[in-house]
Amino acid sequence: MTESAGLGTAGPEHDGRRAIMQWVFGARATETVALAVRLGLPDAIGDGTARAEDLGRRHGFPPRQMTRLLRALASLGLCTEPSPGTFALAPAGALLRKDHPDSLYDFARFHTAPQTLQPWTRLESSLRSGRTAFEEHFGVPLYQYLAGEPELSAVFNAAMSQETHRTAQTLPGAYDFGRFRTVMDVGGGDGTLLAAVLAHHPALKGVVFETVEGAAQAADTFKAAGLDGRATVATGDFLASLPQGADLFLIKSVLHNWDDEDATTILRNCRAAMPAHGRVLIVEVVLPDRAAPDDAAELDPYLKDLQMQVLVGGRERTRADFDQLCAAAGLTVTDVVPLPPHIGFSLVEAAPN
User: O-methyltransferase dimerisation domain: from which residue to which, for each copy (predicted)?
Assistant: First the structure.
């Protein structure tokens, strides 16, 4: 064996060790990013550069300690150190600024909050029992907990809006909305997705159907988009019933929050409210029949699947799973169309039987 073959070549074993180290230390990276977001360091650095000494003084850190934090962020690709002790944002770090047009600030705040991370320590128990880890840890379901925590609830709503932003840029041109009169966005949050669809299809009217808390910002979204008279807000419980009047029911990132029984109930309520020519358009992850790495996906769908179990007791589903859900609700899946790979979602269209 030559010296270069024995010492200088990075082979499969090295790559494997590096992957293991990355994931074993993943929680440390999460906490590092969480601290940076909580302190607002990306906003403090801004478009130019900032000295660690100045950032430390602003946030009450000794200069050496702030330098250590910023260098860890640089190692994660969120900032750079153009000269010793001076830091600038990398493109990834800029996404954590509040004022970035594609900001992930609130998304990062919610998903690195202690209330989101602590239930993961109960992953084994949750998988064995089928019970939601969040409820095991905090004693109440996530949405009930959020109702009692207005600040965290506002961050959650903003995080969901930011997560929807990329889909809202793509969905309006990816489906034939023009054949419908009124679309109801079931569980549509602050109206980000519906506003984008209506802006792209000026003859269409829309309704966001949400809980009172979930729809708190929807009216403002519609007003800002100039959709007065075309978009309205209705509140209620989609597990109980849905109002009539729409011929397309849009459901994005809702069914994966629920077990099969409740997901079927939501679809059955859509079926009961729609006319004979109506459709349901489900926008969710569609898992392949067997696991395979997806380098284009921004979020690993299988980790997302576990997150649904941990936080709310839901799950991601395969095409066959959606077929079964829809059949149980009196619907038939008519088409499944993947959105671009970086979006991570597919369109599942279903029609009444």
Answer: 21-96
Longest dimension (CA), the chain: 77
Structure confidence at residue 342 as a pLDDT band (50, 70, 90): confident
Catalytic residue selected from 14, 256, 277, 342: 256
Per residue, what are the HEC states of the chain? CCHHHHHHCCCHHHHHHHHHHHHHCHHHHHHHHHHHHHHCHHHHHCCCEEEHHHHHHHHCCCHHHHHHHHHHHHHCCCEEEEECCEEEECHHHHCCCCCCCCCCHHHHHHHCCHHHHHHHHHHHHHHHHCCCHHHHHHCCCHHHHHHCCHHHHHHHHHHHHHHHHHHHHHHHHCCCHHHCCEEEEECCCCCHHHHHHHHHCCCCEEEEEECCCCCCCHHHHHHHCCCCCCEEEEECCCCCCCCCCCCEEEEECCHHHCCHHHHHHHHHHHHHHCCCCCEEEEEECEECCCCCCCCCCCCCHHHHHHHHHHHCCCCCEEHHHHHHHHHHCCEEEEEEEECCCCCCCEEEEEEEC
Q: Are 189 and 210 in contact (CB under 8 A)?
A: yes
Q: For residue 206, list its beta bridge partners.
A: 183, 231
Judge whether 111 counts as a catalytic residue: no
Contact 197, 231 (CB under 8 A): no
The token duo for 146 is 């959020």
pLDDT in tens, 206-258: 999 999 888 888 999 999 999 989 999 999 999 999 999 999 999 999 999 99
* pLDDT, tens digit, 9 for 90 and up, residues 26-47: 999 999 999 999 999 999 999 9
